[in-house]
Amino acid sequence: MPSAPKVSSAGKPPAPPKPSRRRAGDRTAEFEALLLGSGKPTRYELLLYVAGTGPRSSAAIANIRSLCEEFLTELYDLQVIDIYQQREEAANRQIIAAPTLIRLFPQPERRLIGDLSSRLKVIAGLNLLPRVLSDTTTAA
User: Fold this and answer.
1) Residues near 128 by Cβ (< 8 Å), separated by ≥ 6?
2) Residue 5 has pLDDT above 70, yes or no
């Protein structure tokens, strides 16, 4: 037999407990902690699809390696895939142009097409801007 609901002396059910009041600074710190995640740096997983060993492919490989070493030192996995050697892999990923860089992680997936020579576009495309800005503010 179910028990009767609790009723206060005024004949009304008791009010739910009020949430504890936090200072604005506490909420800000909590929000910033959530943005930072677990405190571990984010590891980037990148796929670079190239077409053979031509100058555009070589430039794309050199450009992305340079950026990764500068901004993601030891925080990235870069896999270079030749679409001539691994046609099925390229077809599965729906690669229609080369060079194509795919950022698998962190999500969402991002694709950049071209030789990756525009450093600012690659930094923005990989969403490295917050990391770049934090590096420049600490160096100043």
Assistant:
1) 67, 71, 72
2) no
CATH architecture of 44-132: 3-Layer(aba) Sandwich (3.40)
Query: Cα separation of 138 and 136, whole Å?
Result: 6
Q: Is the pLDDT confidence value at 97 over 60? A: yes
Q: Residue 74: phi, psi to the nearest 5?
A: 60, 15
* Single-letter code of the amino acid located at 94: Q
Looking at the DSSP assignment, which residues form a beta bridge with residue 82? 50
Query: Running DSSP on this structure, what letter comes out for residue 79?
Result: E
* pLDDT tens readout for residues 111-140: 999 889 999 999 998 888 765 555 554 444
Q: Is 74 exposed, middle or buried (0-12, 13-18, 19+ CB in 10 A)?
A: exposed
The H or E element containing residue 82 is strand 76-82
